[in-house]
Amino acid sequence: MKECLFCKMVNGEIKPDVVYENEAVLAFNDIDPQAPVHVLVIPKKHIATLNDLEPEHDVLMGEMYLTAKKVAEKMGVTESGYRTVINCNADAGQAVYHIHLHVLGGRQMAWPPG
Questions:
Q1: Dihedral angle at the C-alpha atoms of 20, 26, 29, 31, nearest 10 degrees?
Q2: Catalytic site residue 100?
């Protein structure tokens, strides 16, 4: 997707503050952090929303969550706790239409969120 901000990061047009990367995913610090640790995990394949997932994306989604675990370990929040969130569409707060998993930690999280 030519106009997608996250696709531009994947293809190198924009340089994010990378925390982790492999052949399937890219994880980087959020530019507007909502917690001391706020990392976004994105698939390198463009998928706009959760509603666009297909059965063949099951391994990719698993890779995103395994990456969240790695990010939490790297950022030192596995023991204190962290939250993972995927927003879907405008009412949920999705601002970039390329699926992304928020990894938030480093402070007490409130419930319910939002």
A1: 160
A2: yes
**pLDDT at residue 37 above 90?**
yes
- Find the CATH number of the domain harbouring 39: 3.30.428.10
pTM of this prediction exceeds 0.90: yes
Share of the chain above pLDDT 70, in %: 99
In this structure, is residue 113 part of a structural domain?
no
Give domain status of residue 95, yes or no: yes
The mean per-residue pLDDT over the stretch 86-113 comes to: 96
Q: Which of 38, 46, 98, 100 is catalytic?
A: 100
Structure tokens at 108: 């007490």
